[in-house]
Amino acid sequence: MNRIALPDGSTVPALGQGTWKMGERGADRAAEARSLRLGLDLGLTLIDTAEMYADGGAEEVVATAVAGRRQEAFLVSKAYPQNASAARLPRACEASLKRLNTDFLDLYLLHWRGSVPLDETVEAMEKLVAQGKIRRWGVSNLDVEDLEELGEGLSSCATDQVLYNLEARGVEFDLLPYAARLKMPVMAYSPVGQGGALLRHATLKRIAARHGVSPAQIALAWTLRGPGVISIPKASSEAHLRENADVWKIVLTPEDLAELDSAFPPPKRKQSLAML
Ligand SMILES: NC(=O)c1ccc[n+]([C@@H]2O[C@H](COP(=O)([O-])OP(=O)(O)OC[C@H]3O[C@@H](n4cnc5c(N)ncnc54)[C@H](OP(=O)(O)O)[C@@H]3O)[C@@H](O)[C@H]2O)c1
Q1: Where does substrate bind (predicted)?
Q2: Is 201 among the annotated ligand-binding positions?
């Protein structure tokens, strides 16, 4: 599996696992933890979660999944914007650590921008780094002008996690080139369009048939086609997980890419950052 360098020189697998919608039903939790564990077996060791998901329930599922295997995993969690202040971020982080049953996060993100000034959040994040509670920090759903506001903080921002898939290509116009100049990877969320209409698109189905793979695998391989993108599909089913972990065998041809560009045109001008 390809690995992607973070600004601090460490590397992470380019393909990780999402957890949104996990932990919502008690009856599903054991199976969800098993699927995350299978993902670990398959090399999908970066696991993305958030205090928001199932009100902390997804973090608890992740804790079950990584029990006894913490050192294999690269755990990412996210704080609500209202918790991103100097006073509240340490408490939110501590609560996430407790639910994850760990004493540090590999990466802690501001989930989206709220009313807390960004420089206050950066300072609070840096304090958590200094205390060893988090290894590094980053942001999510921040557009280029928000990132610019980070000022000097930008140099220690590990990633910006944004919506990126064939149906949502706006970030290609400015955010992806901007991040590339900073050597900061972008984390693509909802890379298979939440398993919806994207996977039934005729062009995607045609290209998938040509390669003998599934439309989701083409959608995923497409997000991973260039450098500097980490993709974090969520898959609870074993079949989906195995498909996703296998996308490395797919080499999209110039013809495939041209067909995808024609069906899902790249942006010609600035678009405001799309988010879910
Ligand atoms: N920062 C943010 O604001 C933000 C927003 C959204 C998401 N995220 C993160 O990004 C992760 C991924 O995004 P997402 O969950 O919104 O959407 P996604 O990963 O694009 O789609 C997940 C859906 O696609 C299905 N799926 C996965 N692999 C598949 C395959 N190979 N074939 C067919 N269907 C497949 C899953 O089904 P099964 O589960 O049944 O296998 C699930 O229903 C989230 O889980 C979360 O961790 C972050």
Answers
A1: 111
A2: no
